[in-house]
């Protein structure tokens, strides 16, 4: 089995795709107006309209996640957070959950919410030290 992707269902594909374009620093692949995706090393983040899962009935509900965190590993959390803050502070596209912080296990993380309320973690692993 191969992990393929995580798909976020949203009422506003354009708005959510714009947010993740800013986060990832690259344009979304848009094969259809109701779908966007970002493919990176090891994972794909898909963003889709409810029409793409209409046959599932009420199994999905846009903007209702409180249990999944979308994570992006970056080289420098502080630099990425500063870049995003400069781009997003004047918009309603984000909400800061946690400013850049060193976690008890050593990762450096900054957490924010995307326009639909999904938590996004930008993190970097501790740098290896040489004796």
Sequence-ordered SSE layout with sheet pairings:
Elements: E1 6-9, H1 13-24, E2 29-32, E3 35-40, E4 43-48, E5 69-73, H2 77-88, E6 95-102, E7 108-113, E8 119-124
Parallel strand pairs: 1-4, 5-8
Antiparallel strand pairs: 2-3, 3-4, 6-7, 7-8
Key descriptive features of the protein:
131 residues; alpha/beta; 2,3-Dihydroxybiphenyl 1,2-Dioxygenase, domain 1; 4-stranded mixed beta sheet; globular
Protein architecture, described:
The chain has 131 residues and is an alpha/beta fold. The protein has one domain: 2,3-Dihydroxybiphenyl 1,2-Dioxygenase, domain 1. Helices cover 18% and strands 34% of the residues. The protein contains two helices and eight strands, in the order βαββββαβββ. The strands form two sheets. A four-stranded mixed beta sheet has the order 1-4-3-2, covered by helices on one side. It is globular, with a radius of gyration of 16 Å. The N and C termini lie far apart (40 Å).
Q: Could you provide a short overview of the structure?
A:
This protein has helices at 13-24, 77-88, and strands spanning 6-9, 29-32, 35-40, 43-48, 69-73, 95-102, 108-113, 119-124. By secondary structure, it is of the alpha/beta class. Strands 1-4-3-2 form a four-stranded mixed sheet, with helices on one face. The chain has a four-stranded mixed sheet with strand order 5-8-7-6, with helices on one face.
How would a textbook summarize the main sheet? 4 strands, mixed
Q: Supply the number of helical segments.
A: 2
Q: Kindly estimate the percentage of residues that lie in beta strands according to DSSP.
A: 25-35%
The H-and-E topology, N to C, reads as: EHEEEEHEEE
The number of domains: 1
Structural class: alpha/beta
Radius of gyration based on Cα positions = 16 Å
Name given to the CATH homologous superfamily? 2,3-Dihydroxybiphenyl 1,2-Dioxygenase, domain 1
Shape: globular
Low-confidence stretches: none
CATH architecture: Roll
Mean pLDDT: 90
CATH fold naming: 2,3-Dihydroxybiphenyl 1,2-Dioxygenase, domain 1
Strand order of the largest sheet: 1-4-3-2
CATH class: Alpha Beta
How far apart are the termini? Answer: 40 Å
**In total, how many beta strands?**
8
Helix content: 10-25%
